[in-house]
Amino acid sequence: LLASCGKPGPAPAVSMLAEKDKKYVASTLADMKSDVRLVLFSRDGGECRYCDEAEGLLADVAAAAPRVKVETLSLQKDAARAQELGIDKVPGIAILGKKDYNLRYFGLPSGYDFIPFVETIRAVANEDPGISAESVAMLQKLKKPVQLSVFVTQH
Q: Can you tell me the distance from the alpha carbon of 10 to that of 5, in angstroms, rounded to the nearest whole number?
């Protein structure tokens, strides 16, 4: 409709997943117990190397798994929300379930990162960290917050 008015509208997200990957997402997330919101902070009019791909990938995941909702925001325009969620670069994704487990993903969850990303969505939806009860008990003994960062490269 906007294009017919001579005004450019937002470009639709580019599909990123092959059919077999869409089926993997659908089967893996079929039994989600609750909704998960993927809050994506994307381009701000400047350069963003993987923003289009991140938008397309999350749109594909949400299309394959109805309990996954995607919200796309701007790091600049939605600065207060970004700060609240601890997002300081794009693309940045907050994975939110019934509660915020402070799970953040920066960059494009593709390649070897894709399956753990989908498994994280399932774990958040089912409130199941996927670790032993003994590990949960040990972690509950921590007295102050701990930040764990995992860095991966494509090369």
A: 13
The one-letter amino acid at 17: L
Tokens of 46: 């400047």
Note the pLDDT tens digit of each residue in 25-80. Answer: 999 999 999 999 999 999 877 788 899 999 999 999 999 999 999 999 999 999 99
- Cα–Cα distance for residue pair 18/97, rounded to 1 Å: 26
Q: Tell me the angle at which helices 114-125 and 19-28 cross, rounded to the nearest 10 degrees.
A: 30
Q: What distance in Å separates the CA atoms of residue 76 and residue 44, rounded to the nearest whole number? A: 6
For residue 10, the SS3 value is: coil
Per DSSP, 86 falls in state T
Beta strand spans in the chain (E): 36-42, 68-74, 92-96, 103-106
